[in-house]
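Bumping with the actual sequence this time:
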Amino acid sequence: MTSDTTGYGLLRNPRLNRGTAFSLDERRRLGLEGLLPPAPSSLMHQVARIHMELSHLPTDLLKYLLLSDLQARNETLYYAVLMSDPATFMPVVYTPTVGEACQKFDHIFRAARGVYLPITARGRIRQLLAQWPVADVRFIVVTDGERILGLGDLGVGGMGIPIGKLSLYTACAGVPPEVCLPVTLDVGTNNAELRDDPLYLGLRQGRVRGAEYDAFIDEFVETVADLHPRCCIQWEDFANINAVPILARYRDAVCTYNDDIQGTAAIALAGLYGALRITNQSLADQRVLFLGAGSAATGIAELISQAMVLEGVPLAEARSRNILFDVNGLVIHSRTDVAPFQAVFAIEHAPIADFAEAVRVLRPTAIIGVSTVPKLFNQSVIEAMTEVNQRPIIFPYSNPTSRSECTAEEAYRWSKGRAVFASGSPFPPVTVEGQEFVPGQGNNVYIFPAMGMAVYATEATRVTDAMFIVAARAVAALVTDGSLATGLIYPPQSDILEASLEVAAAIADHIFDHGLARVPRFADTRAAIRERAYRPEYRSLI
């Protein structure tokens, strides 16, 4: 045994520490006598103690900090708490609370977690990554901090996102935490307020662009592929100018995906599939108008288009049914400011500068907000959608809550209860016209943890768009008729682990069907997925 597996060192090893749950025999054999209160606790009692501590804290940020400290000292207990009530704790460890935590990262920093790779270490990335103590990393969630949620450039403070995402890989789908690594690429920040803050923990320089940035990303990807050949890289919260080309450059070379583009697209598609069970329409008949034309919007539009193709719609026509609208109005062919990744969705039409007018003229069946600008789905927009649809589909997906294009209460009230609603951030139930509606949260948490579990179990060589369509269909299939009757078009988050394992099994079958697995096909995919899922249980150390 080593110094971190016995005695005082063991109590500082978050993977092995079980705190007061060490038995009296374990304490004697592992040199822990006298280092803990004399009466052992069960894991159940430890969870109850954390619940009690959390109940006395007045803000979600303080709860986030308590849970972060717990993760740093007892990982098993941390996941036992999260998995005891996922619907309660997901908004605390991830969105919306993680946004505030990232904004205040430098002022509330506790223990280091993950790997920080500054661009000043170019040429030495292998040396830095090799210092992580796990030899077989299977998942890296990485950010450069430039576009954190809807909050903008938070520099090195963006590390809260990879940490939070990977926590949900485990809590929501059972991916073992020891195979997960959060990474931040620090290429500077253009946030002058951060650079001037004496407590800022990142590089105090403007963001590096161009060839130097690209070479840094290349070195990172090549190093990960060499050190951890079975690793999947998830890109997170990169600005559009980098997110789209990075995904394009590596998606056919290594196992990788961008959750902001592909995961967001899949959860939106899942929402559409669920909504269509209420409106009794087909996907092929939909016309979707996007507020926002960045990588999230185009990612959703492309995945919906590909799903329409599977229902017999020609690709060009499918793309023409997914229409973009940004700060400069309708994205049309005659505009000179359309980026290449937006161009396939540009339509032949007269300019329209007002979103409500675009709704009246184009008559979309659904509007999807990915603008990160709050309140743009105003009363005029919702009423226009209600004029042209019996059951308008309204998805304000920007998050955190402060960035949502509208609230659930506004959408239901302005539509007189006719809206089919889902949002990126959570909203409480709403009663309108005498009926209670339960708003669904179009949270990528239904997608990326399941994708991770499927990739982990099959050791997939690639992540494809088709895998996200499979995931979307699987999520929608889990929504019960009873949930649909209340307007809820996503599975309840209280059942997220069971839902994720079902979705993971569907994805895994697709991986096997298309020859993307590194392991032999399972005799029973559902059983194999469940067998591999992490459970927060203390394991014997002696």
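The tokens above came from a reply further down the thread. Residues 259-279 form the longest helix (21 residues).
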